[in-house]
Design a protein that fits this description.
Order of helices and strands: EEEHEHEHEHEHEHEHHEHH
Strand content: 15-25%
Shape: globular
Oligomer: single chain
Distance between the termini: 42 Å
Number of helices: 10
Bound molecules: NADP nicotinamide-adenine-dinucleotide phosphate
Largest sheet: 8 strands, parallel
Structural class: alpha/beta
Protein backbone atom coordinates (compact mmCIF):
# COMPACT_ATOMS: atom_id res chain seq x y z
CA UNK A 1 0.00 0.00 0.00
CA UNK A 2 1.25 3.55 -0.70
CA UNK A 3 0.37 6.78 1.13
CA UNK A 4 -0.26 10.20 -0.48
CA UNK A 5 3.50 10.87 -0.75
CA UNK A 6 3.95 7.62 -2.62
CA UNK A 7 5.69 6.06 0.36
CA UNK A 8 5.14 2.46 1.32
CA UNK A 9 2.89 1.72 4.25
CA UNK A 10 3.03 -1.68 5.86
CA UNK A 11 0.57 -2.71 8.53
CA UNK A 12 2.68 -4.20 11.30
CA UNK A 13 1.25 -5.39 14.59
CA UNK A 14 3.07 -4.60 17.85
CA UNK A 15 3.68 -8.32 18.18
CA UNK A 16 5.45 -8.36 14.81
CA UNK A 17 7.54 -5.24 15.35
CA UNK A 18 10.52 -6.73 17.10
CA UNK A 19 13.01 -4.05 16.15
CA UNK A 20 16.53 -4.68 17.20
CA UNK A 21 16.15 -8.26 16.12
CA UNK A 22 18.71 -10.42 17.87
CA UNK A 23 22.32 -9.39 17.82
CA UNK A 24 25.76 -10.84 17.43
CA UNK A 25 28.42 -9.05 19.43
CA UNK A 26 31.66 -8.45 17.56
CA UNK A 27 34.57 -6.62 19.17
CA UNK A 28 32.09 -5.21 21.67
CA UNK A 29 29.69 -3.95 18.97
CA UNK A 30 26.17 -5.28 18.39
CA UNK A 31 25.15 -6.26 14.86
CA UNK A 32 21.52 -7.19 14.03
CA UNK A 33 21.49 -10.93 13.25
CA UNK A 34 19.10 -10.73 10.35
CA UNK A 35 19.63 -8.27 7.52
CA UNK A 36 18.28 -7.69 4.03
CA UNK A 37 20.41 -8.55 1.01
CA UNK A 38 19.76 -6.30 -1.98
CA UNK A 39 21.60 -7.90 -4.90
CA UNK A 40 19.32 -7.87 -7.98
CA UNK A 41 16.94 -5.37 -6.38
CA UNK A 42 16.80 -2.17 -8.36
CA UNK A 43 14.73 0.96 -8.94
CA UNK A 44 11.42 1.40 -7.16
CA UNK A 45 11.29 -2.26 -6.20
CA UNK A 46 14.53 -1.85 -4.24
CA UNK A 47 13.55 1.37 -2.45
CA UNK A 48 10.17 -0.15 -1.54
CA UNK A 49 11.67 -3.41 -0.27
CA UNK A 50 14.06 -1.47 1.97
CA UNK A 51 11.27 0.76 3.27
CA UNK A 52 9.00 -2.25 3.88
CA UNK A 53 11.78 -4.12 5.62
CA UNK A 54 12.41 -1.18 7.95
CA UNK A 55 8.69 -1.03 8.78
CA UNK A 56 8.81 -4.74 9.64
CA UNK A 57 11.78 -4.25 11.98
CA UNK A 58 14.85 -5.00 9.85
CA UNK A 59 17.79 -2.83 10.88
CA UNK A 60 20.63 -4.27 8.78
CA UNK A 61 21.06 -3.75 5.02
CA UNK A 62 23.63 -5.10 2.59
CA UNK A 63 24.44 -3.37 -0.69
CA UNK A 64 27.53 -2.96 -2.90
CA UNK A 65 28.92 -0.60 -5.51
CA UNK A 66 28.53 -3.48 -7.95
CA UNK A 67 24.76 -3.81 -7.32
CA UNK A 68 24.18 -0.29 -8.72
CA UNK A 69 21.37 0.24 -6.20
CA UNK A 70 23.00 2.29 -3.43
CA UNK A 71 20.83 5.25 -4.44
CA UNK A 72 17.65 3.21 -4.00
CA UNK A 73 18.79 1.68 -0.72
CA UNK A 74 19.50 5.20 0.55
CA UNK A 75 16.09 6.37 -0.68
CA UNK A 76 14.34 3.50 1.09
CA UNK A 77 16.08 4.33 4.37
CA UNK A 78 15.33 8.03 3.99
CA UNK A 79 11.65 7.42 3.12
CA UNK A 80 11.15 5.09 6.07
CA UNK A 81 11.68 7.85 8.61
CA UNK A 82 13.79 5.48 10.73
CA UNK A 83 16.81 7.23 12.29
CA UNK A 84 20.03 6.54 10.45
CA UNK A 85 21.74 5.64 13.74
CA UNK A 86 19.35 2.71 14.19
CA UNK A 87 20.46 1.09 10.94
CA UNK A 88 23.52 -1.11 10.33
CA UNK A 89 24.42 -0.29 6.72
CA UNK A 90 26.97 -2.25 4.72
CA UNK A 91 28.45 -1.58 1.29
CA UNK A 92 31.33 -3.09 -0.68
CA UNK A 93 34.10 -1.64 -2.82
CA UNK A 94 34.13 -3.23 -6.28
CA UNK A 95 37.27 -5.12 -7.21
CA UNK A 96 38.14 -2.74 -10.07
CA UNK A 97 38.42 0.11 -7.53
CA UNK A 98 40.94 -1.36 -5.09
CA UNK A 99 43.78 1.11 -5.69
CA UNK A 100 44.25 3.61 -2.85
CA UNK A 101 42.72 6.63 -4.59
CA UNK A 102 39.89 4.59 -6.12
CA UNK A 103 38.89 3.21 -2.72
CA UNK A 104 38.69 6.73 -1.27
CA UNK A 105 36.90 8.20 -4.29
CA UNK A 106 34.43 5.35 -4.81
CA UNK A 107 33.50 5.19 -1.13
CA UNK A 108 32.76 8.92 -1.10
CA UNK A 109 30.56 8.33 -4.17
CA UNK A 110 28.79 5.50 -2.33
CA UNK A 111 28.10 7.74 0.67
CA UNK A 112 26.60 10.37 -1.61
CA UNK A 113 24.33 7.81 -3.27
CA UNK A 114 23.36 6.30 0.07
CA UNK A 115 22.64 9.83 1.40
CA UNK A 116 24.59 9.20 4.54
CA UNK A 117 27.76 10.50 6.15
CA UNK A 118 29.05 7.06 7.05
CA UNK A 119 28.55 3.36 6.48
CA UNK A 120 28.70 0.97 9.39
CA UNK A 121 30.79 -1.53 7.47
CA UNK A 122 32.83 -1.28 4.27
CA UNK A 123 33.96 -4.54 2.63
CA UNK A 124 36.38 -5.53 -0.12
CA UNK A 125 33.94 -7.37 -2.41
CA UNK A 126 36.27 -10.16 -3.61
CA UNK A 127 40.01 -10.79 -3.39
CA UNK A 128 41.90 -9.12 -6.24
CA UNK A 129 45.54 -10.24 -6.38
CA UNK A 130 46.51 -7.45 -8.77
CA UNK A 131 46.33 -4.83 -5.99
CA UNK A 132 48.28 -5.39 -2.73
CA UNK A 133 45.97 -6.00 0.24
CA UNK A 134 48.00 -3.44 2.17
CA UNK A 135 47.06 -0.69 -0.29
CA UNK A 136 43.32 -1.38 -0.32
CA UNK A 137 42.98 -2.00 3.40
CA UNK A 138 45.23 0.98 4.13
CA UNK A 139 42.84 3.25 2.22
CA UNK A 140 39.84 1.70 3.97
CA UNK A 141 41.49 2.34 7.33
CA UNK A 142 42.02 5.99 6.37
CA UNK A 143 38.29 6.21 5.65
CA UNK A 144 37.67 4.72 9.07
CA UNK A 145 39.93 7.32 10.67
CA UNK A 146 38.11 10.19 8.94
CA UNK A 147 34.75 8.81 10.16
CA UNK A 148 33.28 7.86 6.76
CA UNK A 149 33.37 4.20 7.65
CA UNK A 150 32.82 2.68 11.10
CA UNK A 151 34.21 -0.81 10.50
CA UNK A 152 36.11 -2.49 7.67
CA UNK A 153 36.14 -6.04 6.42
CA UNK A 154 36.41 -8.44 3.51
CA UNK A 155 34.22 -10.78 1.49
CA UNK A 156 34.87 -14.14 -0.17
CA UNK A 157 38.20 -14.44 1.65
CA UNK A 158 39.57 -17.89 2.60
CA UNK A 159 41.01 -18.22 6.14
CA UNK A 160 44.62 -17.68 5.05
CA UNK A 161 43.75 -14.36 3.39
CA UNK A 162 41.73 -13.19 6.40
CA UNK A 163 44.81 -13.87 8.49
CA UNK A 164 46.93 -11.83 6.08
CA UNK A 165 44.37 -9.01 6.01
CA UNK A 166 44.59 -8.61 9.80
CA UNK A 167 48.17 -7.37 9.35
CA UNK A 168 46.81 -4.27 7.60
CA UNK A 169 43.44 -3.53 9.21
CA UNK A 170 41.23 -4.38 12.13
CA UNK A 171 39.04 -6.87 10.26
CA UNK A 172 35.45 -6.79 11.54
CA UNK A 173 33.79 -9.13 9.03
CA UNK A 174 34.17 -11.73 6.32
CA UNK A 175 31.05 -12.11 4.16
CA UNK A 176 30.81 -15.52 2.46
CA UNK A 177 28.32 -17.94 0.97
CA UNK A 178 26.87 -19.96 3.83
CA UNK A 179 23.69 -22.03 4.09
CA UNK A 180 22.73 -25.60 5.07
CA UNK A 181 24.26 -27.06 1.88
CA UNK A 182 27.55 -25.17 2.15
CA UNK A 183 29.99 -25.93 4.96
CA UNK A 184 32.17 -23.15 6.36
CA UNK A 185 33.73 -24.96 9.34
CA UNK A 186 37.20 -23.47 9.10
CA UNK A 187 35.99 -19.89 8.76
CA UNK A 188 33.54 -20.36 11.64
CA UNK A 189 36.32 -21.49 13.92
CA UNK A 190 38.47 -18.57 12.82
CA UNK A 191 35.61 -16.08 13.32
CA UNK A 192 35.20 -17.25 16.91
CA UNK A 193 38.91 -17.20 17.62
CA UNK A 194 39.52 -13.79 16.06
CA UNK A 195 36.16 -12.30 17.04
CA UNK A 196 34.94 -11.30 13.59
CA UNK A 197 31.51 -11.36 12.02
CA UNK A 198 30.73 -14.12 9.56
CA UNK A 199 27.96 -12.77 7.33
CA UNK A 200 26.14 -15.55 5.50
CA UNK A 201 25.22 -14.58 1.96
CA UNK A 202 22.81 -16.62 -0.19
CA UNK A 203 21.56 -17.92 3.20
CA UNK A 204 18.46 -19.58 1.76
CA UNK A 205 20.53 -21.06 -1.09
CA UNK A 206 18.71 -18.74 -3.49
CA UNK A 207 15.35 -20.23 -2.51
CA UNK A 208 16.43 -23.89 -2.76
CA UNK A 209 16.03 -24.64 0.95
CA UNK A 210 12.28 -24.11 0.72
CA UNK A 211 11.82 -27.63 -0.72
CA UNK A 212 14.06 -29.49 1.69
CA UNK A 213 12.35 -32.48 3.35
CA UNK A 214 14.50 -32.48 6.52
CA UNK A 215 14.08 -28.73 7.06
CA UNK A 216 10.36 -29.14 6.49
CA UNK A 217 10.12 -31.83 9.15
CA UNK A 218 12.06 -29.78 11.68
CA UNK A 219 9.92 -26.74 10.86
CA UNK A 220 6.68 -28.62 11.44
CA UNK A 221 7.59 -29.13 15.09
CA UNK A 222 7.87 -25.33 15.49
CA UNK A 223 5.14 -24.17 13.09
CA UNK A 224 7.84 -22.75 10.78
CA UNK A 225 8.77 -23.12 7.12
CA UNK A 226 11.97 -24.82 5.86
CA UNK A 227 13.35 -21.37 4.94
CA UNK A 228 12.74 -20.07 8.45
CA UNK A 229 14.52 -23.12 9.89
CA UNK A 230 17.55 -22.49 7.64
CA UNK A 231 17.75 -18.85 8.72
CA UNK A 232 17.27 -19.70 12.39
CA UNK A 233 20.05 -22.31 12.12
CA UNK A 234 22.41 -19.64 10.78
CA UNK A 235 21.75 -16.91 13.32
CA UNK A 236 21.84 -19.35 16.22
CA UNK A 237 25.55 -19.92 15.49
CA UNK A 238 28.15 -17.82 17.26
CA UNK A 239 29.35 -14.79 15.22
CA UNK A 240 26.97 -15.53 12.29
CA UNK A 241 24.43 -13.16 10.76
CA UNK A 242 22.31 -13.80 7.65
CA UNK A 243 21.24 -11.46 4.86
CA UNK A 244 18.50 -13.12 2.77
CA UNK A 245 17.38 -11.15 -0.24
CA UNK A 246 13.62 -10.80 -0.59
CA UNK A 247 11.51 -8.66 -2.85
CA UNK A 248 7.98 -9.61 -1.87
CA UNK A 249 6.32 -8.54 1.36
CA UNK A 250 5.53 -12.20 2.13
CA UNK A 251 9.17 -13.22 1.97
CA UNK A 252 10.33 -10.12 3.86
CA UNK A 253 7.86 -10.86 6.63
CA UNK A 254 8.43 -14.58 6.96
CA UNK A 255 12.24 -14.29 6.83
CA UNK A 256 12.10 -11.87 9.73
CA UNK A 257 9.69 -14.03 11.71
CA UNK A 258 12.39 -16.29 13.17
CA UNK A 259 12.94 -14.62 16.49
CA UNK A 260 10.33 -16.46 18.50
CA UNK A 261 11.69 -20.00 18.36
CA UNK A 262 14.90 -21.88 18.96
CA UNK A 263 16.37 -25.02 17.48
CA UNK A 264 17.57 -27.68 19.90
CA UNK A 265 21.17 -28.92 19.75
CA UNK A 266 19.93 -32.03 18.01
CA UNK A 267 18.02 -30.01 15.40
CA UNK A 268 21.08 -27.80 14.83
CA UNK A 269 23.13 -30.96 14.18
CA UNK A 270 20.52 -32.30 11.77
CA UNK A 271 20.66 -29.13 9.70
CA UNK A 272 24.48 -29.10 9.77
CA UNK A 273 24.44 -32.67 8.41
CA UNK A 274 22.76 -31.43 5.20
CA UNK A 275 26.07 -29.93 3.95
CA UNK A 276 27.26 -31.29 0.63
N1 LIG B 1 29.59 -10.73 -1.06
C1 LIG B 1 29.20 -11.36 -2.15
O1 LIG B 1 30.00 -11.69 -3.04
C2 LIG B 1 27.75 -11.72 -2.30
C3 LIG B 1 27.35 -12.67 -3.26
C4 LIG B 1 26.00 -13.00 -3.33
C5 LIG B 1 25.09 -12.38 -2.49
N2 LIG B 1 25.50 -11.43 -1.59
C6 LIG B 1 24.53 -10.73 -0.70
O2 LIG B 1 23.71 -11.70 -0.05
C7 LIG B 1 22.34 -11.43 -0.34
C8 LIG B 1 21.53 -12.71 -0.37
O3 LIG B 1 22.06 -13.64 -1.29
P1 LIG B 1 21.32 -14.07 -2.64
O4 LIG B 1 20.47 -12.96 -3.09
O5 LIG B 1 22.37 -14.59 -3.55
O6 LIG B 1 20.47 -15.36 -2.24
P2 LIG B 1 19.37 -15.75 -1.16
O7 LIG B 1 19.10 -14.65 -0.21
O8 LIG B 1 19.77 -17.07 -0.60
O9 LIG B 1 18.09 -16.04 -2.07
C9 LIG B 1 17.31 -15.03 -2.65
C10 LIG B 1 16.19 -15.72 -3.42
O10 LIG B 1 15.41 -16.47 -2.50
C11 LIG B 1 14.05 -16.06 -2.57
N3 LIG B 1 13.49 -16.05 -1.22
C12 LIG B 1 13.74 -15.17 -0.23
N4 LIG B 1 13.01 -15.45 0.86
C13 LIG B 1 12.27 -16.55 0.54
C14 LIG B 1 11.29 -17.30 1.25
N5 LIG B 1 10.95 -17.00 2.49
N6 LIG B 1 10.72 -18.37 0.61
C15 LIG B 1 11.07 -18.70 -0.66
N7 LIG B 1 11.98 -18.00 -1.38
C16 LIG B 1 12.58 -16.94 -0.79
C17 LIG B 1 14.07 -14.66 -3.14
O11 LIG B 1 12.83 -14.41 -3.79
P3 LIG B 1 12.16 -12.93 -3.94
O12 LIG B 1 13.28 -11.99 -4.27
O13 LIG B 1 11.18 -13.12 -5.02
O14 LIG B 1 11.52 -12.56 -2.64
C18 LIG B 1 15.25 -14.75 -4.10
O15 LIG B 1 14.85 -15.34 -5.32
C19 LIG B 1 22.41 -10.71 -1.70
O16 LIG B 1 21.21 -10.03 -2.00
C20 LIG B 1 23.59 -9.81 -1.46
O17 LIG B 1 23.23 -8.69 -0.67
C21 LIG B 1 26.82 -11.11 -1.47
Amino acid sequence: MKDCRGHVTVIVSQEERKTGVEYQTIKGEKVPSLGLGTWRLSGQECARAVERALALGYRHFDTAQMYANEGEVGRGIRNSGVDREEVFLVTKVRTSRFSHDDVIRSTHESLKKLRTEYVDLLLMHWPNPSVPLEETLGAMTELQEEGSVRQVGVSNFPPSMVEEATQYANIFCNQVEYHPYRAQGELLEQAKEMDYLLTAYSPVAKGRVSNDAALKEIGQAHGKTPTQVALRWLIQQEKVVAIPKAASEDHLRSNFDILDFELSDEEMERVSALRR
